[in-house]
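Shipment paperwork, digital attachment
Item: protein structure file
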Amino acid sequence: MLDRLRAVEWMGDWDYAFGHVMSRRVLLREYLRRAALWAQVYSVESEWPFFDVTQYVDPEFDLPLKLASELEEYLGHVPSGAVRRTCVGAVRLAELRAQNPTAVPDLPDLYEPLVLFYERGGEFVRDNAGFLDLTGALFRPGTLQGHLGTTPLSALSDTVLNAVDAEGRVSYYTAADGQGPLLRRRELRDEQCDELFTRNLRWEPTDQVPGSTGDMKDAGLVELDEIEATNLIGAIVANSPR
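Attachment content:
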């Protein structure tokens, strides 16, 4: 885990981060959901959302001295307090799991979505209005309660996350009966692109997206949230020919 974090470019290529802003947003949403679950289990809701959960999972746990020293040295390169806390938590929880798997509860891996977020474009920055700047998009984290019970992100592979990233303002659609294809409309500054996610795991032009909301209802289409769309991409990837 420490090696993965060392490879992150915290303040690197802006274009790279901007190109991954949509996948970074769904990853951050999934982290906030998982963090809400962990915080609730350990009754540390006030620590949500960016915290080191290991001190509550096992208050007696310490990193081996060499790893603790390497982590402390590395943290000098990490840009902000909230990011540093999660880096500490990610390394400590990974080491606790390696040393004593039974000490870690049967909950979804807390830090994996956030580490992937970091790997796909570096840090987030808080602004004075309560938003998180994801490099290319502002995101309001909301409340812990608001993230409990939300739809889990079921697939975190690069193939799925890369399929989420796109230029423009994106809306997703599929058949209301759940049997249809995944469609998206991308609205760019001076054009509109309608696309279909195929079994070849790429977006291709389509004429299946009607022009208006009323026409979409008549065609039996419903709009999907970005998490629902990402999960549908994951299902298509899982069932595609290898």
